[in-house]
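Reagents: none. Just compute today. Ferrous iron transport protein A.
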Amino acid sequence: MLTLSSVAVGEKVRLIAFQAGSVLHRHKLLAMGLTPGVTIRIISKAPFGGPIQVELRGYQLSLRPSECQHIVVEGMYERCGDKAVSADHCVCG
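Predicted 3D structure written out:
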């Protein structure tokens, strides 16, 4: 299971769900626009466990790493010739 806290800077992912038992985080995150199906791009990660800055729905948001650990995501892939590649790394144009 891939969580938002383990995604590399610059990658785009799609939010799938929130982990079970994360009710307190879930309500707050839903109110900020983090809903299932939304595309999220990791902009930066602060060193030493600091905030993770993400972009979604046309705005930027900083999240605590503890919040990101409760967000289940999947990578976004496209077809590039005969390979499945990350949406950000397709060179087909």
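The longest strand covers residues 12-18.
Action item: order primers for follow-up constructs.
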